[in-house]
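Escalated from tier 1: 3,4-dihydroxyphenylalanine holo job.
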Amino acid sequence: MQEKLAKIREEALARLNAAADSDAINEIRLAYLGKKGQLTEVLKGMRDVAPEDRPKVGEWVNDTRKAIEAKLEEVQKKAAEKALALRLEAETIDVTMPAKSASLGHPHPNTLALKELERVFVGMGYEVVEGPEIEYDYYNFEALNIPAGHPAKDEQDTFYINDKILLRTQTSPVQVRTMEKTKPPIRIVAPGRVFRSDDVDATHSPCFNQVEGLVIDKHITFADLKGTLAQFAREMFGPETKVKFRPHHFPFTEPSAEMDVSCFKCGGKGCRMCKGSGWIEILGCGMVHPKVLRMSGIDPEEYSGFAFGIGLERITLLKYEIDDMRLLYENDVRFLNQF
Ligand code: DAH
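Tier 2 regenerated the structure:
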């Protein structure tokens, strides 16, 4: 028996010394100390040992186990150290290597034009406000003097969520929302997305951006409208810019006009940009209709005001001389990086 144990010990230690990694070491542990291991088998065989010899044999078995366990611990420690050393070597970082450059995005030309526009109006004391894109028919049409059946509703067809709720076709409803909850004086610009069932082409999109403007106070006249918008045009398109007002019709303003700016490309002589006319249309405007004031709880006998609506994309296309609106929505960074 003693011989057999000595042989087990010798063999186990030799195998452990040669073991390559912790998997191999574990396998050897099972082969000797596991449930079906060689040493465990010897212990099971104690039944056949004479009772008086058992303490002696038990001691031999224990010695063998201890020797194997000590060796196991030793080689396992070595294997762990070796594995760590290998990992450290594999994960070495070369701090002198050039870094991968992160590619940054670029502000959209619409955003650039809007920031510029906001800078001009905030400089004149305006506040920037926003309204919901999903809007009540009441705010988008009714309260702007566009009752059911009005032909303007045809021109501004949109997506209806139900009879009363729709995707707003203009930013003008923000006027009504502001007048309802703010006492004059009011001076706001309201940028935002609007929606119409238009087909996509070089100058149309079913989703685009407008900027609404509204001023309400005592004694506001068309002269204030003209002075303000002329100043805006000069700041936006250059100090030489002239403005021209053409009579127009909007249901929520009376009188109403469209404003043209002198072509900043040719200075008014006529070129491709202004289609030879020397003028470029940029916005709609007018004096807020007394009915609109009254519906929003403002007394038209006491207060008056003006409003305007600007198509943001139009300003962007003009300012950056882009000839197709679709380019604005493709988000190709090679295009965006140019502005
Ligand atoms: N909401 C108008 C449109 O979408 C634009 C507009 C015109 C707004 C005149 C105004 C305005 O506030 O006074 O066609």
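The chain has two domains: 2-90, 109-336.
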